Every structure is written in C-alpha cells, then in structure tokens.
Amino acid sequence: MRDGLADELANWMRRGYPYEVVALLLGSFDSADDIVITQCVPVANQALDPSRHFVMDPQGWLTADTQAQSLGLDIVGMVHSHPDAPPYPSHADSASAALLGTRFVYLIAAVDAGGAVEMQAWRWDGQMFCEQRLQCR
Ligand SMILES: [Zn+2]
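The joint structure predicted for all components is written out below.
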C-alpha cells in the first residue's frame, strides 16, 4: 500500500462514523500474490441502514474504472468500515466476495466512537476469507 494511504483511509473512516464507509482501491497486480494499492476512490453507501450494511452506488464503479484506466491501474480491491465491530468479514461480506473473485483484496477497517481504527486485509480463496498481510511502502 502506498505510504500515507492507510492514514488517509483511517481519517476518512473516522469522518464517516457511525456509518459504514466504502471505497474502491486502485493499484496493480505485481505477481500472482502481490497487490500494490496506490489510490482509493470513495463510493456512496446506498444501504437503507448504512450503520450496519453497505451497498455501493453502481456509479462509483464506473467512476473508479474510468479513473483506473486513465492512470493505467486496475481496480484491485475495496475497503469498507465496520463501525463498532471488529475487522472480520460478515456473512454479507462473504457473499459479495464470492461474486468479486479471488484476485480482489478486501480491506476492512474497524472504527469506534473514540476514533480508533484497526485495518485488516482479506482475500477470498473461493471458499473462505484468508488474512492478507498489508505493507506500506
Ligand atoms: Zn463488512
């Protein structure tokens, strides 16, 4: 992950609290297992109950895709927040990950009322989520 991006994301998750905040991650696939994240594109959360769920505005995908293409990048993953909940994937997360496939990185940011943010990256292996290490460079 690009240096500084984690802080940007954390601040943004704090601002969105107590609602779930969602964004698409742009970057590149270095090798089969290495993903470099360099940008994030905020996407509106259209869920009826945005404190417990997220539904991405489809327009957000188009915006992110256009931005990715203009920068020579790919959409490599997504990030969303879990207000007052740990950064572990929910059943809903598993369902959407199954649709998005195994190359996608799934970043979850736990955020609480005190502003503490804990991020964990996940990768769907076709059956379940596996923890993914996150490095800043
Ligand atoms: Zn979730």
